[in-house]
């Protein structure tokens, strides 16, 4: 009888160990396979897509999808627990973090991966060759409809409001289209208009689509309060001289090291930051370049 009981417990222990090992294997594999949806402001789709393409080449069983929405809606979905990952231009506020925790019992991790910028564009045939920041502020304050945004409550609109320190009322109205592509085509046809989009829409100059756009439109430099003419170049973004820079954050509220955490780590790695650089943006992490001489 004692032998039978001992044998029974050995079988139970065996299945417990097998089950434990299987769970451990699943946990180890969770970071490189599965499915995740990232809420993303449309102005970041170019760099986001470039990162995902290379990430999936390393982890072919990973399925990363984007849900493009204006930034305010992305953040609303994130703090309500509808998505566990977001790519936006700002961190959560303390109050937003509390709402997220109350809804999901999860805290979030924020990873800054790049520096983008708001740029002003117009037709190449336009006589506009620069704009003073003071004039831009007045125009936006007075809802000048010659200025066209790539979306209401988008990261570009929100960042510009913060940078210009504007007080926007609830009934404030702007002229906005659905995305940067529409804005670019609009200003090309309407020579007196100025589009407000993200640099990421035009930064990858090796892209045939971007080359086509740059044959139709031009980026307008801004004139600061010291009468300096400043272009949104990478050195000016890096130094902070260009006044309308915006950061790109990955927000993650997963309850373990899963696929989203793996993607965040990849985006901040040396390989991910090289992709950011190739996309024509300023990487957040700067890595020392090592050259081996034989």
UniProtKB/TrEMBL annotation:
Coiled coil: none annotated. PANTHER family: PERIPLASMIC PHOSPHATE BINDING COMPONENT OF PHOSPHATE ABC TRANSPORTER, PHOSPHATE-BINDING PROTEIN PSTS. It comes from Apibacter adventoris. Residues 29-253 form the PBP domain. The keyword Signal applies. The lineage of its organism: Bacteria, Pseudomonadati, Bacteroidota, Flavobacteriia, Flavobacteriales. Keywords: Signal. It holds the Pfam family PBP_like_2. This is PBP domain-containing protein. InterPro entries: PBP_domain, Phosphate_ABC_transporter. Gene3D superfamilies: Periplasmic binding protein-like II (3.40.190.10).
């Amino acid at each position: 009888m004692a032998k039978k009981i001992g044998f029974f417990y050995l079988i139970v222990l065996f299945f417990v160990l097998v089950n434990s090992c299987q769970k451990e294997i699943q946990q180890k594999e969770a970071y490189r396979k599965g499915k995740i949806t990232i809420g993303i402001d449309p102005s970041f789709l170019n760099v986001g897509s470039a990162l995902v393409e290379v990430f999936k080449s390393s982890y072919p069983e990973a399925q990363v999808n984007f849900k493009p929405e204006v930034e305010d809606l992305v953040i609303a979905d994130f703090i309500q627990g509808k998505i566990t990952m977001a790519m936006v231009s700002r961190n959560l506020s303390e109050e937003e973090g509390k709402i997220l925790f109350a809804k999901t019992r999860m805290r979030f991790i924020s990873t800054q991966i790049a520096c983008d910028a708001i740029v002003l564009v117009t037709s190449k045939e336009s006589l506009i060759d620069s704009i003073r920041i003071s004039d831009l502020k007045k125009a936006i304050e007075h809802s000048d409809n010659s200025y066209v945004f790539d979306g209401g409550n988008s990261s570009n609109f929100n960042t510009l409001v913060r940078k210009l320190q504007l007080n926007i009322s609830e009934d404030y109205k702007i002229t906005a289209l659905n995305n940067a592509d529409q804005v670019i085509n609009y200003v090309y046809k309407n020579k007196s208009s100025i589009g407000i989009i993200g640099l990421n829409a035009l930064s990858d100059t090796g892209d045939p689509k971007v080359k086509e756009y740059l044959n139709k439109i031009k980026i307008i430099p801004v004139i600061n309060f010291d009468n300096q003419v400043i272009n949104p170049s990478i050195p000016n973004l890096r130094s902070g001289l260009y006044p309308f820079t915006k950061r790109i954050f990955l927000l993650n509220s997963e309850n373990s090291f899963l696929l989203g955490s793996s993607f965040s780590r990849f985006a901040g790695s040396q390989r991910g930051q090289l992709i950011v650089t190739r996309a024509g943006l300023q990487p957040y992490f700067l890595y020392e370049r090592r050259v081996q001489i034989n």
